Amino acid sequence: xxxxCVGNMTQLETLxxxxxxxxxQLRHGEFVMLHDSADRENEVDMVVAAESISPxxxxxxxxxxxGLLCLALGCDVGDKLGIVNMCDIxxxxxxxxxxxxxxxxxxxxxxxxxxxxxxxxxRRTFTGVTDRDRALTISELAKIGxxxxxxEMGEEMFASDFKAPGHVHLLLESxxxxxxxxxxxxxxxxxxxxxxxxxxxxxxxxxxxKTHNALSxxxxxxxxxxxxxxxxxxxxxxxxxxKHKAG
Length: 247
What we know:
By secondary structure, the protein is α/β, with parallel strands linked by helices. The protein is built from ten helices and seven strands.
C-alpha cells in the first residue's frame, strides 16, 4: 500500500502486543514512548494524541521529558492548511534577506531534511506558553486539521483561529512518510494513522538532567516501566509500514 499523505492504516491483524498496546493508549489519550533508532538521533520522545492533549500532559512533557514540545502533523494536513516547511520559507525569503540562505539547513547531521515549519499560538491564548495555552493550541490545531481533510476550508479556518509566531513548533511529515524520512515526526504520525485518529501528535524529547544529554534508551525504558507507558522501537514501526506498503 503506497502512502502519499492520505488514508488511515487498517491492516492491524499482525501487530505485536507492544504496538497494539501503544495504539490503545494513543486512542485513549495516554502517553506512548518512541525511540527512533540507534543510527539516527538515538532519542526517545514522549508522544500523545494532539486532539486529546491536556494541560497536565503538557506539564509532564516539559518537566519529565524536558525537550522541545512540538506538534507533528501529517503532510496531508499541512497541504490542506497551507503550512510549508521552514527550509522552503527561508529560501523564498533569501532574495530579500541573504543571510537566510546561509543559515538554511537542508540536511540535518542525523540525516534528512529538518521537519520544522512555523510556530503558532491559538488566537484565544494570551502569551501562548502556559500549559493551558499550549494544550489549547495543540488540540485545536489537530481538530482543525482533521476537519480540513474533509473540506476545502482548511486555510481559512487556520488563518481565522491561529496566529504566528507562537509557542508551538509545527513539524511536517515528509511527503513519502517513512519511505523518505524516519524521524519522530513520521513515526508518530504513522502511529496516529495506525490508531485511526487525526494524524497529529504532540512529541517531546526526553533529556537527562545529570548528563545534560538525551536520556539513554535504557533509562527511558525504565521510566516507561515505572509509569506503565508502552515503549516502541521505531524500527518496528518502519517494518510494519514497509510490509503493508509492499502488500
